Fold:
Amino acid sequence: MIVSGDRNPISRSSDRLIPLLLVPVALISLGPILRLLAEGFGLGDGATLAHATEVLGRESTRIALWHSLVTAGAGTLISILIGSAFAFVVALTDIRAKSALVFCLMIPMMIPPQITALAWMQVTGPSSVLLRTLGLAPPLGSPQPLHSAGGIALLLGIQHASIIFLTLRAGLRMIPADLVEAARISAARGWRVWAQIVLPLSLPSLAAGAAMTFVTALGNFGIPAMLGIPARYSTLPTLIYQRLAAMGPSVLSEVAILALVIGSVAILGVLAARLMLRRRAFGLVGLSGQPLSLSLGASRPFVETLLWGFIALILVLPLMALVATSLIPAYGVPLSFDTLTVKAWHEVLFRQPVTRRAYLNSLFLATSAALILMVVALPLAWLISRRPNWATRAVDTLVDLPYALPGVVLAIACILSFMRIPFTQITLYGTLAIILLAYLSRFLVVMLRPVQASVSQLDPAMEEAAASAGARIGRRLHTIVLPLAAPAAAAGAILVFLTAVNELTVSALLWAAGTETLGVVIFNLEDSGETVMASALAGSIVALVILLMGVVQFASSRLPKGTVPWQG
Amino acid sequence: MSRLALALPLALVLPFAATAGTLKLYTSQPNADAQKTVDAFQAANPDVTVDWVRDGTTQLMARLAAEMEAGAPAPDVLLIADTVTLEGLAQEGKLAAYSSPEAQAYDPALYSKDGHYYSTKLITTGIVYNTAADDIPTSWADLAKPEYKGLVAMPSPLYSGAALIHLAALTDDAELGWAYYEGLAANEARADGGNGGVFNAVAAGEKPYGVLVDYMALRAKAEGSPVDFVFPEEGVTWVTEPVAIMKDAANPADAQKFVDFVLSEDGQNLVSEMGYIPARTGVASPEGFPARDELKLIRFDAAKALADTDANKSKFAEVFGVK
Structure:
């Protein structure tokens, strides 16, 4: 007979929670990835390197890998230029309307990449409705300049600039003003303060941001798919998509190897980012004081004009071009008051069942993912914070993996895992369930981090008091943790929702009859020559995204610090 | 809570399982046409709901193979670009034999003897050009001339069923043959995506000339796009967008109704209205199109094309340097 040895109610009841929560989370984060490894190396039916050697030896693999590295690398450089310029000015100076500026800089990242590519294709080249309408279109037969490595890198750079901006700004805010004061007292001025104090201290943040940007750019599918496929310029994600789309599941083990190649490069990038962030933490922890605020003086209006002009260039111009294209009757017709028509909008929003279905599917997937993850993230964050042991620490790290890896990798892993669920005859292939599972795995970390930030600020004394009054764990979570962490959970849910509504990379490989997502439909419309309809659908999604971002922005004053990512 | 947890996966799967009265259609028609076809069919058969999916023929075939392998619900009816693909499916025993009462109004060359598939329209492949272009080509051979270097876009046979048949017919032609494709490759003709990409490039003026299916060019021209279409001197190649019923169709009764409707006089008038040359004898071509018997069709052998499919694809990939 066992007499209960541990009479502490907190630890006893939470121990029961551990397997209930940690096992499924670990399974859905790691399971598909392990399945992918097994497929790539033929584990189960005789381990072999034959696949790997064959696929890696192919010229197409090497070319695609090289293209991926080149475009992601060059894109990262462009992101660094844009993101750091904005970060230094916004974090360190006294320019006005900072939050509006930051909000606008965040929009490109929240807009689906294939829409970014579609919009930019309407700005340049002989196809530009905008240029044709203005009579400035390049002559017949000129190439679309964006259908090139440079075009892909440029758009990747614009799309991901906000990652650099956010990490760098967070780093800059940790630089105490005392250091600058000290330098000033020693007669250092202007550029010298910047070059000798601010820049060296911000380098680890910049490097960490660069590594994350590189990983994100590496996994981007929408931009290289829209710009690269027509130019026969393949990257690893588009190569995987094309192989799978043309050949079907017979090439799964081959694309599994390709997925592992891109996954390995991505993991190197993630490790580099972690290393840099740790350096930053060691260097500046413990220092306190006011953040820097440099006065721009008379040059302030000039700097402001420059930044807003740049926003107009990267945001307003392509969106205007997109809307212009959506309003013409047929592709190639210039826009004028005589030709203007909302036919494409009507067809897309009210006639086509596929777009209606895609809206329903995407909204359903995004809402379900947000709600389910909210239910999981609250107790999980609480457990990680209150019960630090090897298991919770492992899960804390694991949930990063599916988000950090390129979406293509996760999609292939999910097809392999759920095409036939082990020990059953059930298949999830071709259902919404497989996309939902992939989303749960991919976006858990998006939900978890803000909730963690909020839970770690809670005082355990309240829960201990409740426990000693006899409240069990469910009740304590419900009455104490939930209300206090709810705002962060709501912000996290909206972020998950926004990310999931925009998603293409995962669903491009997982969709089937009836389970199209918005990203898939835009891609297919453009692909079948229906650019005008694609533009109209894209326009409606951009409006939805900006609206939702506006809701978060509007509610941000009531949220705890650190929950809305674009507000430090 | 646990009951909810059990019900959730079911709710996710069920809406896409086949239900009586719902017909699942895979088609390679453009979205708007697919919608018109479905609307007209549903108006004639109010008790049937049609769920349809559009993609390129090659992609749809890959998807179908994946779904059959996974045991996921597959479509009831196919309405896709070419007879070669359907002949392949019929030989694998994937198609149901159905003798439609409408067949008597069709040229026997336009449907399979066993009723595995029926042609619904004639889609020819010719040359599209941007009206701002200097030269107007009149023949296939023109596209390989030095004046057209770097100015031609064409759909890839690795992607489009119509383009694969176009390739099979032209490379089989005594005058043109593989030498013509080698000439196009040397002339830097761009062959990457499907017909959609070619149309975009030509309408935009990025490539002034393109190899394209007739309806995309002629319909866009009617809506004001700056493009026009040439039926080349050597003749045009053609596909017939056949309709077929899957052998394992969950809803064969409605599938038969769908086939009959598409082949019926009403169905064929709709085809003509949408801007395609109808397959049914006695239904007039749409405005701007030549009548069916005025077209010069390049001969092609479907059985041979099917047997040569892989060889043709890999030879094309080699000639055009696709890896």
